[in-house]
Amino acid sequence: MAATVVGTDGSEQAASALDWAIDHGAGKAIVLVRVVDSTIGGADYVVTEGSLGAAQDGLDREADRVRSAHPGLDVSTQLVHGDPITELARFSTAESLLVVGTQKRTGSRFRYSWSVGARLASTANGPVAIIPHDTARVGRGIVAGVDGSEPSAAALLFAAAEAAREGAPLTAIHAWQDPATERAHRALLDGAVSGLSGGFPRVEVTPRLVQGTPAWALLEAARDAALLVVGNHGETGDSRSLLGSVSQSVMINILSPTVVVKTAERA
């Protein structure tokens, strides 16, 4: 990853995402991006020089705080205006990690509803990290979802690279429901994991076959993990179907820092 791009708006959840990005990046350059939302008003709404100036001042103060707390860290800023999803997605590449926070709990059955992070993950050109603002990073290890698809293979490779960089254990999760097909599912999982040994010989990889729905299995496994990695399985249609049903369920009920990875073909 060449750089870590953090979407910020001055909120608590954005601050949590920034803290995670700095910790996760281990000295990697940070690009703080602030989008002045030009879609919040009616047809007559215009982004003024005053609002842009105030946003730039806030962005500069945030960058100065980061530089003060982390001397030597390369921190730059970008101020843009427009639709937040569209503008943030422009900063997403296969070589960079785009990091955003989540909305606060709503008290409803769905913890974060259809968040900015989930919508970004459905349209971004590279990996997107979504960080729950009310979840301290106390977990250990990395969890990746495996289902035999190209997106899950990309997610597993990303997770293995993260595990190697952090010296963390990696758990590869594959869910199944029909008892008659357990052997085939075991072979699929073992095959996916065996492909990691050559490129990541020092990573401790544990394959785990779980009977249940994929989203439930991933969320349960990630409850005590430092990071969950899933593939973007979307095809066509609206932003929800662009993300894929399993990844969508994970995003709605997110419990831990989560990265959604897109294959090169989908980028």
Provide a descriptive summary of the structure in words.
Helix 7 packs parallel to helix 9 (245-252). This protein folds into 2 domains: 3-131, HUPs (Rossmann fold, 3-Layer(aba) Sandwich), CATH 3.40.50; 142-261, Rossmann fold (3-Layer(aba) Sandwich), CATH 3.40.50. It is α/β, with parallel strands linked by helices. It has helices at 12-25, 49-69, 84-89, 116-123, 150-166, 182-194, 214-222, 239-243, 245-252, and strands at residues 3-7, 30-37, 75-82, 96-101, 128-131, 142-145, 170-176, 205-211, 227-231, 258-261. The longest helix has 21 residues, at 49-69. It has 9 helices and 10 strands. Strands 3-2-1-4-5-10-9-6-7-8 form a 10-stranded mixed beta sheet, sandwiched between helices.
